[in-house]
Design brief:
Elements: E1 3-7, H1 11-23, E2 27-31, H2 37-44, E3 48-52, H3 60-67, E4 75-79, H4 84-92, E5 97-100, H5 105-124, E6 129-132, E7 135-138, E8 143-146, E9 149-151, H6 155-165, H7 174-182, H8 192-203, E10 214-217, E11 221-224
Parallel strand pairs: 1-2, 1-3, 3-4, 4-5
Antiparallel strand pairs: 6-7, 7-8, 8-9, 10-11
Keywords: Cytoplasm, DNA-binding, Phosphoprotein, Transcription, Transcription regulation, Two-component regulatory system
InterPro entries: CheY-like_superfamily, OmpR/PhoB-type_DNA-bd, Sig_transdc_resp-reg_C-effctor, Sig_transdc_resp-reg_receiver, WalR-like, WH-like_DNA-bd_sf
GO molecular function, one term: transcription cis-regulatory region binding
Protein backbone atom coordinates (compact mmCIF):
# COMPACT_ATOMS: atom_id res chain seq x y z
CA UNK A 1 0.00 0.00 0.00
CA UNK A 2 1.50 3.32 -1.09
CA UNK A 3 1.91 6.02 1.54
CA UNK A 4 0.68 9.59 0.94
CA UNK A 5 1.44 12.52 3.22
CA UNK A 6 -1.21 15.26 3.09
CA UNK A 7 -0.29 18.59 4.69
CA UNK A 8 -3.50 20.65 4.84
CA UNK A 9 -4.69 23.02 7.59
CA UNK A 10 -8.37 22.83 6.59
CA UNK A 11 -9.40 19.96 8.89
CA UNK A 12 -12.63 19.18 7.06
CA UNK A 13 -11.01 19.14 3.61
CA UNK A 14 -8.09 17.05 4.89
CA UNK A 15 -10.49 14.51 6.37
CA UNK A 16 -12.50 14.24 3.14
CA UNK A 17 -9.33 13.76 1.03
CA UNK A 18 -7.95 11.24 3.51
CA UNK A 19 -11.14 9.16 3.47
CA UNK A 20 -11.34 9.24 -0.33
CA UNK A 21 -7.73 8.18 -0.83
CA UNK A 22 -7.94 5.48 1.82
CA UNK A 23 -11.00 4.13 0.01
CA UNK A 24 -8.76 3.91 -3.07
CA UNK A 25 -6.15 1.78 -1.28
CA UNK A 26 -3.65 4.41 -0.15
CA UNK A 27 -2.25 4.82 3.34
CA UNK A 28 -2.71 8.52 4.21
CA UNK A 29 -1.02 10.51 6.96
CA UNK A 30 -2.36 14.01 7.62
CA UNK A 31 -0.52 16.97 9.15
CA UNK A 32 -2.42 20.21 9.77
CA UNK A 33 0.65 22.43 10.18
CA UNK A 34 3.72 22.78 8.01
CA UNK A 35 6.15 22.92 10.93
CA UNK A 36 6.48 19.14 11.31
CA UNK A 37 6.36 18.30 7.62
CA UNK A 38 10.07 18.49 6.60
CA UNK A 39 11.24 16.13 9.36
CA UNK A 40 8.38 13.71 8.63
CA UNK A 41 9.07 13.68 4.88
CA UNK A 42 12.80 13.06 5.25
CA UNK A 43 12.36 10.41 7.96
CA UNK A 44 9.39 8.49 6.50
CA UNK A 45 9.98 9.06 2.75
CA UNK A 46 6.29 8.78 1.73
CA UNK A 47 5.53 7.80 -1.85
CA UNK A 48 3.70 11.07 -2.57
CA UNK A 49 3.52 14.39 -0.71
CA UNK A 50 0.53 16.72 -1.15
CA UNK A 51 1.17 20.22 0.20
CA UNK A 52 -1.23 23.08 0.67
CA UNK A 53 0.60 26.29 -0.22
CA UNK A 54 -0.91 28.44 2.55
CA UNK A 55 -0.06 26.67 5.80
CA UNK A 56 0.45 27.95 9.36
CA UNK A 57 4.03 28.35 10.63
CA UNK A 58 5.69 26.97 7.47
CA UNK A 59 4.15 27.32 4.00
CA UNK A 60 4.17 24.68 1.27
CA UNK A 61 6.84 26.41 -0.84
CA UNK A 62 9.22 26.52 2.14
CA UNK A 63 8.62 22.84 2.91
CA UNK A 64 9.37 21.87 -0.69
CA UNK A 65 12.58 23.92 -0.72
CA UNK A 66 13.79 22.31 2.50
CA UNK A 67 13.28 18.71 1.45
CA UNK A 68 13.68 18.64 -2.33
CA UNK A 69 17.39 17.81 -2.48
CA UNK A 70 16.87 14.79 -0.20
CA UNK A 71 13.42 13.74 -1.36
CA UNK A 72 13.07 12.59 -4.96
CA UNK A 73 9.49 11.33 -4.90
CA UNK A 74 6.47 13.27 -6.24
CA UNK A 75 5.30 16.50 -4.60
CA UNK A 76 1.92 18.01 -5.53
CA UNK A 77 0.70 21.44 -4.45
CA UNK A 78 -2.84 22.41 -3.50
CA UNK A 79 -3.51 26.04 -4.40
CA UNK A 80 -6.62 28.08 -3.64
CA UNK A 81 -6.21 30.28 -6.72
CA UNK A 82 -5.47 29.70 -10.37
CA UNK A 83 -2.34 31.85 -10.25
CA UNK A 84 0.38 31.56 -12.88
CA UNK A 85 2.85 32.92 -10.33
CA UNK A 86 2.06 30.16 -7.82
CA UNK A 87 2.38 27.53 -10.54
CA UNK A 88 5.70 28.91 -11.80
CA UNK A 89 7.18 29.15 -8.29
CA UNK A 90 6.05 25.62 -7.48
CA UNK A 91 7.59 24.17 -10.64
CA UNK A 92 10.82 26.11 -10.18
CA UNK A 93 11.39 24.68 -6.71
CA UNK A 94 10.70 21.11 -7.81
CA UNK A 95 6.97 20.39 -7.59
CA UNK A 96 5.62 17.68 -9.90
CA UNK A 97 2.09 19.02 -10.30
CA UNK A 98 -0.55 21.25 -8.73
CA UNK A 99 -4.26 20.97 -7.99
CA UNK A 100 -6.53 24.01 -7.87
CA UNK A 101 -9.11 24.17 -5.08
CA UNK A 102 -11.91 23.31 -4.68
CA UNK A 103 -10.45 19.82 -4.95
CA UNK A 104 -12.30 17.39 -7.20
CA UNK A 105 -11.48 13.99 -5.64
CA UNK A 106 -11.32 12.00 -8.88
CA UNK A 107 -9.10 14.65 -10.49
CA UNK A 108 -6.76 14.49 -7.50
CA UNK A 109 -6.66 10.69 -7.74
CA UNK A 110 -5.90 10.89 -11.47
CA UNK A 111 -3.04 13.33 -10.87
CA UNK A 112 -1.58 11.14 -8.12
CA UNK A 113 -1.71 8.05 -10.34
CA UNK A 114 -0.19 10.04 -13.20
CA UNK A 115 2.88 11.17 -11.24
CA UNK A 116 3.31 7.66 -9.83
CA UNK A 117 3.24 6.14 -13.33
CA UNK A 118 5.75 8.69 -14.52
CA UNK A 119 8.07 7.92 -11.61
CA UNK A 120 7.84 4.19 -12.25
CA UNK A 121 8.50 4.71 -15.96
CA UNK A 122 11.58 6.78 -15.22
CA UNK A 123 12.98 4.09 -12.93
CA UNK A 124 12.30 1.39 -15.51
CA UNK A 125 14.07 3.24 -18.31
CA UNK A 126 17.19 4.33 -16.46
CA UNK A 127 20.33 4.11 -18.58
CA UNK A 128 23.96 4.76 -17.82
CA UNK A 129 25.02 8.20 -18.94
CA UNK A 130 25.33 10.62 -21.82
CA UNK A 131 28.62 12.26 -22.73
CA UNK A 132 28.43 15.05 -25.30
CA UNK A 133 31.59 17.14 -25.50
CA UNK A 134 32.18 18.71 -22.08
CA UNK A 135 28.72 17.75 -20.81
CA UNK A 136 28.26 14.55 -18.81
CA UNK A 137 24.83 13.40 -17.65
CA UNK A 138 24.71 10.38 -15.35
CA UNK A 139 21.21 8.93 -15.14
CA UNK A 140 21.85 6.53 -12.28
CA UNK A 141 23.29 9.11 -9.90
CA UNK A 142 21.31 11.96 -11.49
CA UNK A 143 24.46 14.05 -11.62
CA UNK A 144 25.36 16.58 -14.32
CA UNK A 145 28.85 17.95 -14.95
CA UNK A 146 29.84 20.67 -17.40
CA UNK A 147 33.56 21.23 -17.95
CA UNK A 148 34.05 18.91 -14.93
CA UNK A 149 32.02 21.26 -12.70
CA UNK A 150 28.92 19.90 -10.97
CA UNK A 151 25.66 21.53 -12.06
CA UNK A 152 22.88 21.45 -9.46
CA UNK A 153 19.54 20.68 -11.13
CA UNK A 154 16.07 20.03 -9.79
CA UNK A 155 14.49 16.70 -10.66
CA UNK A 156 12.38 18.34 -13.38
CA UNK A 157 15.37 20.13 -14.89
CA UNK A 158 17.36 16.90 -14.94
CA UNK A 159 14.51 15.03 -16.65
CA UNK A 160 14.16 17.75 -19.27
CA UNK A 161 17.90 17.76 -19.99
CA UNK A 162 17.94 13.97 -20.22
CA UNK A 163 15.00 14.01 -22.64
CA UNK A 164 16.58 16.63 -24.91
CA UNK A 165 20.09 15.15 -24.78
CA UNK A 166 18.72 11.73 -25.70
CA UNK A 167 17.46 13.29 -28.93
CA UNK A 168 20.30 15.63 -29.96
CA UNK A 169 19.91 17.87 -33.02
CA UNK A 170 16.24 16.91 -33.39
CA UNK A 171 13.52 19.42 -32.44
CA UNK A 172 11.29 18.13 -29.67
CA UNK A 173 7.82 19.65 -29.71
CA UNK A 174 6.33 21.31 -26.66
CA UNK A 175 3.44 18.82 -26.91
CA UNK A 176 5.84 15.86 -26.76
CA UNK A 177 7.89 17.30 -23.88
CA UNK A 178 4.73 18.18 -21.95
CA UNK A 179 3.33 14.68 -22.39
CA UNK A 180 6.59 12.98 -21.44
CA UNK A 181 7.30 15.13 -18.38
CA UNK A 182 3.87 16.05 -17.08
CA UNK A 183 1.82 13.14 -18.35
CA UNK A 184 -1.00 15.01 -20.02
CA UNK A 185 -1.62 16.82 -23.30
CA UNK A 186 -0.47 20.42 -23.69
CA UNK A 187 -3.49 22.73 -23.33
CA UNK A 188 -1.93 25.75 -25.02
CA UNK A 189 -1.65 27.72 -21.77
CA UNK A 190 0.58 25.75 -19.39
CA UNK A 191 3.98 27.48 -19.12
CA UNK A 192 5.75 24.75 -17.15
CA UNK A 193 7.89 23.49 -20.07
CA UNK A 194 8.97 27.05 -20.97
CA UNK A 195 9.88 27.78 -17.34
CA UNK A 196 12.01 24.66 -17.10
CA UNK A 197 13.78 25.35 -20.39
CA UNK A 198 14.56 28.89 -19.27
CA UNK A 199 16.00 27.79 -15.91
CA UNK A 200 17.96 24.97 -17.54
CA UNK A 201 19.57 27.40 -19.97
CA UNK A 202 20.73 29.64 -17.12
CA UNK A 203 22.27 26.76 -15.19
CA UNK A 204 24.07 25.41 -18.27
CA UNK A 205 25.55 28.82 -19.11
CA UNK A 206 23.54 29.17 -22.29
CA UNK A 207 22.95 32.64 -23.73
CA UNK A 208 19.45 33.48 -22.49
CA UNK A 209 19.04 36.24 -25.11
CA UNK A 210 20.31 34.17 -28.04
CA UNK A 211 20.39 30.52 -26.91
CA UNK A 212 22.77 28.26 -28.79
CA UNK A 213 22.84 25.15 -26.57
CA UNK A 214 19.10 24.61 -26.22
CA UNK A 215 17.60 26.35 -29.22
CA UNK A 216 14.00 27.38 -29.77
CA UNK A 217 12.84 26.27 -33.21
CA UNK A 218 9.72 28.32 -33.80
CA UNK A 219 6.76 26.18 -34.73
CA UNK A 220 8.65 22.96 -33.93
CA UNK A 221 9.91 23.07 -30.35
CA UNK A 222 13.27 22.88 -28.60
CA UNK A 223 16.52 21.48 -30.02
CA UNK A 224 19.55 20.27 -28.06
CA UNK A 225 22.54 21.32 -30.17
CA UNK A 226 25.30 18.73 -29.77
CA UNK A 227 28.05 20.87 -31.33
CA UNK A 228 27.59 23.60 -28.69
CA UNK A 229 29.11 21.44 -25.93
CA UNK A 230 32.49 20.81 -27.56
Amino acid sequence: MLHILLVEDDVRLASLIQQFLQANNFKVTVLHSGEQAPAFILAKQPDVVILDIMLPKLDGFSICRRVRKQFSKPILFLTAKDSDLDHVIGLEIGADDYIIKPVVPHVLLARINMVLRRTQKQKATEQDNIQIGQLNIDKKSRQVHLNKEHIELTSHEFELLWLLANNPDEPQSRDFIHQEMIGRDYDGFDRSVDVRVSRLRKKLADDTEKPYKIITIWGKGYLFCSSAWQ
